[in-house]
Amino acid sequence: MTLSTIINIAITLIFIYLASSFIIFAIQEKIILFFNLKAKNLKQVIYGLLGEEQQKGSFSLTERFYEKYLNLPLNPSLSSKRQQEKGGKLQAGKLSKSMGPEQIPAEQFVADLITVVAEELKYEDKDFYNKYELTKIIEDINGSDCRFSEKMKRDLSAMLQRAINRFEDKGEQLKYLDKQLQSWYDMSIEYALEIYDKKRQYISIILSVIVVLMFNIDTVNIIDNLSKSEITSTLSNKITEVIVSNSESNSCSQVNEDTEFQTCIQEQFATTFMALDGIDNLPIGWNFSEPLKEQFTPLNFPHIIKAITGWIISIIAISQGAPFWFGILNNLINFKSNKSAKN
C-alpha cells in the first residue's frame, strides 16, 4: 500500500468521523438545552460557592443570584480571567438557560456580592468597605443577625483577615481583597466547569455508541473497504478540493470563540457534504437485506471480535469531537497538497 493510498484512506475515514461528530454535537446541544444543564450547573456553582443547601422556603442568596444572572445584561467591557486567558470576548446581550457560569465575569459577581453584603449587614452605603474598618465588617458578618451560611462567613472572614494582615494601608487592603474575591469565584468556576465537561463527555460517549451502532461505523471494516475501493482516491480528492476552497475563503483558525469555531467548521462541513452529494459509496451503514453478510462472513468468533473492535475504535474516535478531527483533517490535507506540489 502506497503512502498516497494511506493518506486518501485517512482523509476519507476522518471525514466520516467528522460527520458523525457533528451529528453527536447537534444532538448533545439539544439535550443540554432541553434539560437546562448549563443553568443547573450555574445554580450548583453558586450553591457551592455560598455554602448553601437547596431548601424550599428558606433564605437563599443562591436563588437571588441565579434569577439575576439568568436575565443579566452582559457588559462587554467586563471579562473574567478565564475568558481573557482564552482570548474570548463577552457579547452584549443576556444570559439564558443555555449559557453557563463561565459567561459571568468575576468582576460582576464580586460587585453583586458586595451589594448583597451591604444589604444583609444593613449598611446604608454600598461603599461600606471604604467607610468601615475591615475588622468591624468581620464582626458584623459573624454576628447572630447575619443569615449567611457558615461556609460563607468563614470564607469572607478569612479573606478580610488576610487583607488586614498583609497590608496596613486601607486602599491596598481593598485591592487585595478584591483580587481574593475574584480568585475565590474563578476557582469555583474552574471546578464547576471540570464537572460540567465530564458530564458532556459522558453524553458524548453514549451518543457515540448509539450513532456508531445505528450507522454501523466500523473503523476496521471501513479501512478494509477503502483499501480495496477504486473510489477512495476520487472521494479523498473531492474532500480535499472543497475543504481547501472553504479554508481560503473562510479560515476557522482565525476564530477564538468556541461557539463561533463550532459554527465555522460546521458551515465548512456542510459545504463539503453538499459537494459530495451523489457519492453514496462510503463503507458505513447496514445492508438491511443481508445486514451481517459483509462483516460476519463467515459468522465466527474472529469476525465478531473484529467488528466489535472496529465499533469501539469508532466510538473512541468520534467522541473526541468535531474540532479535533477538523484540525487533523486540515493537517492531512495540507500534507497531501504539499506532497503533490513536490511531485
What are the salient characteristics of this protein?
343 residues; mainly alpha; 2 domains; two-stranded antiparallel ribbon; 14 helices; 2 strands
Structure description:
With 343 residues, the protein is mostly helical. It folds into two domains: 159 residues, no CATH class; 154 residues, no CATH class. Helices cover 69% and strands 1% of the residues. The chain contains 14 helices and two strands; from the N terminus they run H-H-H-E-H-E-H-H-H-H-H-H-H-H-H-H. Strands 1-2 form a two-stranded antiparallel ribbon. The radius of gyration is 27 Å and the shape is elongated. The two termini are 18 Å apart. About 8% of the residues have low confidence.
Topology order in helix (H) and strand (E) letters: HHHEHEHHHHHHHHHH
Please identify the oligomeric state: single chain
What is the SS-derived class?
A: mainly alpha
* H/I helix tally: 14
- Distance N to C terminus: 18 Å
Global mean pLDDT:
77
In spatial order, strands of the major sheet run 1-2
* Major sheet description: 2 strands, antiparallel
Q: Kindly state the percentage of residues in helix.
A: 55-70%
Number of strands: 2
What is the radius of gyration? 27 Å
Form type: elongated
Proportion of beta-strand residues? under 5%
